[in-house]
Design a protein that fits this description.
Length: about 260
């Protein structure tokens, strides 16, 4: 980690999807660097596990919440801001993945399930945090985790790719609305080793191909966190509305599949 000890001292951030994978690593790293973390995820037991691992557990606050029930999440996030004080930003990492065919009987139902978490749930929390009544600090930075699947989709990942493309496009527009007081950027990782990947047989097959086609190999969560920290810091104060791709040098796997 390139950031110095206590680089985020007296800073506070909200993290969604903080119970596993990229979100958990980000939450623990920011806490290690001195930040107060409000960690949000569905699995309270996993959150508590990470709290016990945190360097500063007293500044690792666990909140269990299902983002798929997104209707009132904006007012809920506003209440969080009032309860825990002014935030310096947030990382929206909550998300699910699924591979499915457009021929599936319940295709639209699956689309709604995926978008409710990947897009609408995170969007509603962002909406609450940029509300004037939330008193988020001037200069606050928001980072939304997207995916290279937004620009290089592959067979069976239409819904997932669409939800990530929605993030990338929205960030560019929202950045114009909330500037100059706030900033927002997205990060689009290629395939990264996470529990989500290990639980998905389709992605395991995808990983075998990525192992052959990524010059630097399949990513790890620690490859993503430094960029998140940079985007949350003042060092990136002239960046907003950008999508940063972290790919290990990987290209379009579809080209490989055609061979």
């Amino acid at each position: 980690m390139i950031f110095k000890k206590n680089a985020f001292e007296n800073k506070s951030f909200l993290i969604t999807g903080a119970s596993s994978g990229i979100g958990a690593h980000i939450a623990l790293t920011l806490n290690d660097l001195g930040a107060k973390i409000v960690a949000i995820a569905r699995d309270e037991q996993k959150l508590e596990h990470h709290k016990n691992q945190a360097k500063n557990p007293e500044n690792f606050i666990c909140i269990s919440k299902d983002l798929s029930d997104y209707e009132k999440l904006d007012s809920w996030a506003l209440d969080l801001c009032k309860e825990f004080g002014e935030f310096d930003g947030a990382v929206f990492s909550a998300g699910i993945s699924m591979n499915t065919s457009i021929r599936s009987i319940d295709y639209i139902q699956q689309a709604k399930k995926l978008f409710n978490i990947n897009y609408f749930g995170n969007l509603q929390i962002l909406k609450g945090m940029v509300d004037r009544r939330a008193h988020s600090k001037e200069g606050s930075s928001f980072v939304w985790i997207a995916s290279t699947a937004a620009s290089v989709p592959t067979k069976g990942l239409c819904l997932y790719s669409a939800s990530k493309a929605a993030i990338v496009a929205s960030v560019k527009s929202i950045a114009l609305e909330i500037a100059p007081k706030f900033r927002i950027n997205s990060i689009s990782p290629a395939l990264v080793e996470t529990p989500l990947l290990k639980a998905n047989n389709f992605l395991q097959d995808y990983k075998k191909i990525a192992d052959l086609t990524y010059p630097l190999g399949v990513g790890k969560v620690e490859n993503i966190t430094p960029m998140v920290c940079f985007l949350l810091s003042k060092d990136s104060s002239w960046m907003t509305g950008q999508d940063v791709m972290i790919t290990g040098g990987g290209g379009d796997i579809n080209n490989y599949l055609k061979k």
